[in-house]
Amino acid sequence: MKIRFGMGLDNQRGWHTRNTLGEITVGEKGMLSILETQLGLIRKVALQSRRIVQYLTCLKQCDHAARFYHQSLEADELGTAATLLGWRDQWYLYGWDGKIEGMEAKRLADMSEVESIACKKVAPSEGERLAHILQAMKRRIPAISSITLTRPLAHYPKRWQLILSRLQTEFQELASVPHAGSFLHTLQDRLRDVQSGKKLGKVDRLDFKADGSVIIARAETRILAAHWLADRMAENIADGILVATDSTDLLDDILAANQQARHGLNESSSARSVLQLLPMALTLLWAPLDFTVLISFLNHPISPIRHFARRQLAEKLAAYPGIRGQRWTDTLNRIDAHYGDQAAAVREQIHTWIDHPRFDQKGGVSIDQVLIRAQKMADYFRVQLTDTDETKHILWDTGLVQTTVFIQSLEQLQEDGVIARIRPRQLQKLLAQATAQGSVNPNRIAEVGSLSTVDDLGALIESFDQVIWWQPVMPNTPKEFPWSALERHTLARAGVMLPDHADVLGNLATDWLKPVLAARKQLIIVLPPQDVEAHPTWQMMLSQIHNITEQSIEQVFNHHPQTTTCSIPLPHTPLPQPRRWWQLSIDTPIGKHPYHSYSSLELFLFNPYQWLLRYPAGLETSSVLAVSDGFLLDGRLAHTLIEHFFALPAPLGMTKSEISTWFDRIFPEIIEAEGAVLLMHGRRSDYEELRYRLHRAITTLLTQIKTAGVTKIKSEQALKGQFPGGKIIGYADLMLTNGQGQHAIVDMKWGGTKKFTEQLRENTHLQLGIYAELVRQKTGAWPAVGYYVLSEAKLIAQQDAYFPDAIQVNKKTEESIPHLWERLKETYIWRDTLLQQGRIEVALADQEEIEAITPPEAGLKITPLNPCYNDYRVLAGWRPA
């Protein structure tokens, strides 16, 4: 067997594909596998997450207050174990035998003591596996005829050097490109001179020669750059390689969109949807419950809970966050009714993943409890593996692997007994280690017709006619070793031959030049946007080339579209601008709603396009993407609390002490059932503020009601009646009746004292006017009306005849509610006439009045609605910021 071997060649394609037999190109993982197979040392490779847990056990066994890692271990057990295990593994790779003589270096002495246990406990690292191979090679030599090294033997770690020195090896450098007189070859010679240390000044800079051998392009955005490059790559490239280390997924997507072969530029990510499920499920273990995570869990495309049940639960929890109370019970009952005979199984899913015991974050949770949930998640993924869709099958398998790795780590912790209860930080570390490698998109594989590709510059080991370097950004550079000079000297005496940091950087700098040096005929560099720091090789080129020319991709597309092979010139089509009026065809079907309400009438009268999109078109924003919070949630909780209060047998006869006793009992129950976001960490001040405001609101409201001589109260009173448009319905927050049989309507608002005071002053309180008319149609008499602002505990009314202690608003007009009702009817008839003509007004706050049509003088004054509550603003037309 002939092998070409280099560090970092695994999963790379930096060479030509050939039809060969008995020849292979591998990196360190591939070489390890070959050697262990031939020497009979095949073993199941332990996962890194499990090794970290094993090493943690060793650290704890040796731990005491004098250990150098003691405080770090107390603060972050798994993180500390991972760091120290990384030190240990690196030492073994560079020649350590597990022992350190002398006690001068305290940290090394501690590590040596830990190693006396770890050598028997922790699964072997790469360096230890190489040591076992060395022992086996004393008895048997692998059947390898020759090994071609892609870098000098001295650049390999010591353990690899010891093994490779026992085999037939030769070093093959990246072949030099014969000089053919092009600027590319001149540039390559110059970069080699710089690399060799030759002194060059500004006067020695090269003049850029635009002979097509070096093409530099840059766009303001990566997506435009990707389209330009896809256009270039549409030409038949007989011998080329694509070097891509940044934004690779984007480039592959653009290539596929242009009907070209994918190159398998697949960035591994721990944020793939299938890998999000287990972390979210485990976050739900903790009290207080994080409703943001819960809503994400319910809305996730992958879930162990049935779809209809998830949707119903998400709608309830988004509007009324809480897993208790009547609304929660009603939601569960709807789910039961939907699933029928399968309801019990769905209820079990809900109990398993949502309505289950939770644990205090400080006290932690037992490993048994975490294992139960992880194993149930693994069971869910196993069931999904029966999916015949290959892509989905890969995704399910990815989730199962992540969960299995996590379970193994937990079992190791449980077996070693080093952690009895696990806290959130530790759980997050275990999850991060189980998901460290992430996963790739199974749909993004290299297709027939793709070029050779590398994302590690050191893996470019052959020359190509054309090299395309996509987005050369500043790479990560290796950090210096964390050990002092004394510690490095002690390690060297123990056989650990660590490379000098300057040599590491020098080798890296050699790799950085490979994309330029590997090009035989043409080099194409697609630079990142100006605000992104470019690669050191590009910076070196700038220092050595005078007047280097960059192609502006925007100018290519804007001024020279004929130079692109796949572009079709199209006339510029601007986005539609807002228009004051939409004209519908007369035969456009606009369905009639069986009834009207204040909400629908407000939109129809004041901004018809919102009404059109909301009701006839049925366009609605999602109600399950965010948890209700802020003043909206406060208002809902206040309404619920007051409904509970006035549902008591005799609320008007309660004393302040009795009200406080009842409030102290019911307020936490309502918060837990419908406002549990206020129980989350960091929300205590919000909770206490709401508690204070609601207690004040109830006591003040009751005082106002008693002063008014009210004897009967109904909350959420249903109202219905007629108007020129048909049926109209509504629900009055409070309908009051005093001792003389007179009625009053009180509409409760959380805030907006100024706004609602102005409405009463201008006689434009349309909602109260509608409710008053509906009461008049039923009783024959106009009721009194008023607003009660809950957050400020203020009752506002136009006159004090009914509410003596209310804040009286002085009207600016002689009109009253009957006049308001007549204006409503006039405006409705006007709008309805326009609707029959297909004319829909788009009334925006800052729109010009030149196209406005004057409403009837006897109608309502048309004022723009608050744009903050307009979900359809973007559908009105493009409005530049």
From TrEMBL:
Q: Which domain of life is it from?
A: Bacteria
Q: Name one Pfam family in it.
A: PDDEXK_1
Residue intervals of the PD-(D/E)XK endonuclease-like domain:
597-822
The entry's protein name is PD-(D/E)XK nuclease superfamily protein
Q: Which organism is it from?
A: Nitrosomonas cryotolerans ATCC 49181
